[in-house]
Amino acid sequence: MIIIHNKQRKIHINMHELKTKAHAILKNAGYPDFDLGILLTTNATIKKFNKMYRKKDKATDILSFPYHDTLKPGKTITVRDPEDKNLGDIIISLEYAQADAPKTWNRTFEDHLLFLLAHGIAHLLGHDHMTVLQEKKMRLFENKILTGVWPV
Prior knowledge:
The chain has 152 residues and is of the alpha/beta class.
């Protein structure tokens, strides 16, 4: 089950479409029936989470909180009980994403939001971008799970 909470009111989001796209991305990732939590918020709120969990006192576009925090990229989640069918939670600042999409990524906001969703899911599945090689592998995985979903 995908649960999306929109805690901001400035930027309109088609929640049904976002949920449909999230389901497609999870299916492409090989986890069509796993749970995913998505919080859509503001710069002020994501800044608080970033400070609390990453010790960075600034807003960011996305934060990911994996349920399977020791999962390595490319490894499959082993389901031993129903709780294991949880990927984790993602927090996205729509305010940050909307400002960042055209100037940094040369994308529409809608395309960038889908990319961020795939990026967050990649993090939940153990991917990271601390090195050039890790980033390359992560981008390949993101492109794979966005097949048929992105660009808008």
